[in-house]
């Protein structure tokens, strides 16, 4: 037997997308190579190889000649139970010295950032290394040139689409406002107007749902590049999860680590957003920045700083960009969570009487802005054109056509468990904490449980009677419903006053 070979046995351990290998501490490979827990190792099967983090086992769950992989490692290696893998020390990662330099406050040049992002995309960085890099870049520790170079590095490690025409439209919200699911509606209106809009979206980072999470409750979003091209050429637009494509692939890895860290720095946000737009071939990008006391962007000063950074980085990469600042004082729509937000989107597109008015109006405003920005509508006429396309049913028809081209339109599910949260006194809604609202929706299970989250019943200024439901929690598991309620016991979300908020 090769001294570095072990036979694979499945254990059914899910570590999300991080590659982990499990080996007995007393197996011949660990003893011969001096491997310890958390060692980075290279695992080879035929012509495929991955870099994985070692977890050691001190029980007989594995035999001495066996190893196991985390769930994501099996398909990455193309492995099957019983296959023999070669395990060796991982190659030295030279870019870690640059990562450590950033930790100590040094600026990074373009070659250093290119090396770091290249190693991240290749799977050479552990989650610990990625977390250190993200933390070192947060808090305003990256200057403009570093952000430009980081964006370029993230584009360069993946594919880049050229649609051979212009304009290619895109729209993005920087987030921080629960329920603000305008993108599917804007895409439907824009494509119905004749614009080309190949929309790629990320999953949630710090929110209860991302556009990809919402659209996945309605249709297939994990299209590869040829499939995406086919849908766009046929219908003019698409709704695709960026993680299924090789467009700025490092971004999806960084996002996976950002989520548990619950950080989203300006530089990383800008590089993430713009690298995806550039790689997807966008020529015109409309960016929505909600501003509010509990939104991601809390003040006009913060919004101005982020807007300037977005505009400067976009200009350096030759993409036209327009920023729209919107009100972020309260959530949008009623549903918070993938399926609940999908129900709101469908209601707006179908013109249902029950559709959330605020979601409809925000979508129309952004769609109108995009139509004018891309030259489809004359200045001042975009909003009325967007209104016409939505009310005529043209946007709904186009939305259905795109979903059918991607695999069919589904009806979003509903949660098994629901629990109303009622007002303890009468009064008027004086404040809604969007951050805490997002937190409780995540505790209820969103976005991993697609039907989980919460449904709002009141908005700012609304009169409320004692015992009236303020919102309803939705969950799939009793434990998650309990977590959410326990959080609400010490973290009030809706503030009631004696007078109408002005």
Automatic annotation (TrEMBL):
It catalyses: thymidine + phosphate = 2-deoxy-alpha-D-ribose 1-phosphate + thymine. SUPFAM superfamilies: Nucleoside phosphorylase/phosphoribosyltransferase catalytic domain (SSF52418), Nucleoside phosphorylase/phosphoribosyltransferase N-terminal domain (SSF47648), Pyrimidine nucleoside phosphorylase C-terminal domain (SSF54680). Its EC number is 2.4.2.4. Keywords: Glycosyltransferase, Transferase. SMART domains: PYNP_C. It is an enzyme of class 2 (transferase). Residues 428-495 form the Pyrimidine nucleoside phosphorylase C-terminal domain. InterPro entries: Glycosyl_Trfase_fam3 (IPR000312), Glycosyl_Trfase_fam3_N_dom (IPR017459), Glycosyl_Trfase_fam3_N_dom_sf (IPR036320), Nuc_phospho_transferase (IPR035902), PYNP-like_C_sf (IPR036566), PYNP_C (IPR013102), Pyrmidine_PPase_CS (IPR017872), Thym_Pase_Put (IPR028579). Transmembrane segments: none annotated. PROSITE patterns: THYMID_PHOSPHORYLASE. Belongs to the thymidine/pyrimidine-nucleoside phosphorylase family. Type 2 subfamily. This is Putative thymidine phosphorylase. It comes from Acidovorax facilis.
């Amino acid at each position: 037997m090769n001294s570095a070979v072990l036979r694979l046995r499945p254990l059914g351990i899910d570590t999300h997308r991080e590659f982990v290998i499990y080996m007995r501490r007393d197996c011949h490979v660990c003893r011969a190579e001096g491997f310890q827990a958390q060692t980075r190792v290279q695992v080879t099967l035929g012509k495929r190889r991955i870099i994985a983090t070692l977890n050691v086992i001190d029980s007989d769950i594995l035999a001495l000649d066996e190893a196991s992989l985390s769930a994501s490692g099996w398909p990455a290696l193309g492995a099957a139970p019983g296959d023999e893998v070669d395990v060796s020390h991982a190659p030295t990662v030279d870019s870690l010295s640059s990562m450590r330099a950033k930790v100590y406050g040094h600026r990074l040049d373009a070659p250093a950032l290119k090396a770091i992002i290249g190693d991240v995309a290749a799977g050479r960085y552990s989650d610990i290394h990625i977390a250190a890099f993200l933390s070192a870049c947060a808090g305003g520790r990256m200057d403009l040139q570093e952000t430009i170079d980081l964006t370029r590095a993230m584009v360069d490690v993946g594919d880049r689409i050229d649609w051979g025409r212009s304009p290619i439209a895109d729209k993005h919200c920087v987030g921080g406002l629960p329920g603000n699911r305008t993108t599917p509606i804007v895409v439907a209106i824009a494509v119905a107007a004749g614009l080309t809009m190949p929309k790629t979206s990320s999953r949630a980072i710090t929110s209860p749902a991302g556009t990809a999470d919402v659209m996945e409750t309605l249709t297939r979003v994990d299209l590869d590049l040829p499939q995406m091209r086919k849908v766009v050429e046929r219908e003019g637009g698409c709704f695709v999860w960026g993680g299924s494509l090789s467009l700025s692939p490092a971004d999806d890895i960084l996002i996976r680590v950002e989520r548990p860290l619950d950080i989203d720095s300006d530089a990383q946000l800008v590089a993430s957003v713009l690298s995806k737009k550039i790689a997807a071939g966008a020529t015109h990008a409309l960016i929505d920045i909600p501003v509010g006391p509990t939104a991601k962007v809390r003040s006009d000063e913060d919004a101005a700083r982020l807007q300037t950074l977005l505009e400067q980085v976009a200009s350096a990469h030759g993409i036209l960009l327009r920023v729209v600042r919107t009100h972020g004082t309260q959530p949008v729509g009623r549903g918070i969570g993938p399926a609940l937000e999908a129900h709101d989107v469908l209601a707006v597109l179908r013109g249902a009487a029950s559709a959330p008015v605020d979601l409809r109006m925000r979508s129309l405003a952004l769609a109108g802005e995009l139509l004018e920005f891309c030259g489809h509508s004359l200045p001042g006429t975009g909003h009325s054109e967007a209104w016409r396309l939505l009310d005529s049913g043209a946007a709904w028809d186009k939305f259905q056509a795109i979903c059918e081209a991607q695999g069919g339109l589904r009806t979003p599910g509903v949660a098994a468990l629901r629990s109303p949260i009622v007002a303890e006194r009468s009064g008027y809604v004086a404040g809604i904490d969007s951050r805490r609202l997002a937190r409780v929706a995540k505790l209820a299970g969103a976005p991993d449980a697609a039907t989980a989250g919460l449904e709002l019943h009141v908005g700012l200024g609304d009169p409320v009677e004692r015992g009236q439901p303020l919102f309803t929690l939705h969950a799939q598991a009793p434990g998650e419903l309990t977590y959410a309620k326990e959080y609400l016991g010490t973290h009030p979300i809706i503030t009631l006053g004696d007078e109408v908020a002005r």
